[in-house]
Amino acid sequence: MSSASGGADPGMGGGSEEQRQRGVWILVAAALAFAVLVLPQVVEGDDKTSFAGSALPSGGTSPPPTGPGGLPSGLPSGIPTGVPSASLPGYGSGGSGGGGGSGETQAPATPTVAPDPTGEAYRAVSPGNCLAVYDTGYGDYNTRMPAPVDCDAGNAYMWVSAVRSGGGACPQGAGQDYMSYTSRGRTTALCLTRQFKVGYCLLAKQTGSGQQARMNAGLMTAVDCDAKRVPVRYNQILHITGVYKAPANASAANCARVQGDRTYYWSWVVNGGRTLLCTMVYQG
Question: Which residues cross the membrane (predicted)?
């Protein structure tokens, strides 16, 4: 009795062990199935999340890798690294241009032409103008800047008969001359006719004396009648006593101002033969 009631049932004991082994195999099979069927899907899903917030380009091509600041790495050669994105053409945000256009070629600036007041003054003179210009007796005129004045003014020494492109085209004769100026290859010549006025004085060079005396007047000159010194090329001051319409065969004999006038006159026919100029040595 005792053996029957205290021992294990051989049939029941064998069934329990078989069930445990079957359970282990089921667990192993389940683990293998998870590894084969489920785990690859989880890993692939994790890889896709690396494009967080971005859609794949059409065709499945991955976008270029980005560097610091969001610029694509591997920029074209010649573009320095570390340049802010706003200064690179085609990159960065905002605007439609290339960020300042530092590579644009600028048109050369138009050269500045320096003003030439003297040239402008010459070109402003017209025929018929009068100028406060005279020969100083030292081989030049008193000014290189021809400023027109009223022809009735006391300093209207010259009358402009013409304006030419060269002095050679101006009339040449007693009481006539020209002054010219060349600027940037352009010459302006002012043809001058002396305006003689009674009471004014001229410079002259006298040679010889008595009946052998000869007087060479500087007809384009003007001088203070009371001047104490004269240029070395001259030695006399002549006083203008009369300016007349030249008669036929005009001479100093036509300069007498009163009947029986015994003044020693020096005369010239000027202005193209139309005017008789009468002078005398200034006596003070």
Answer: 24-43
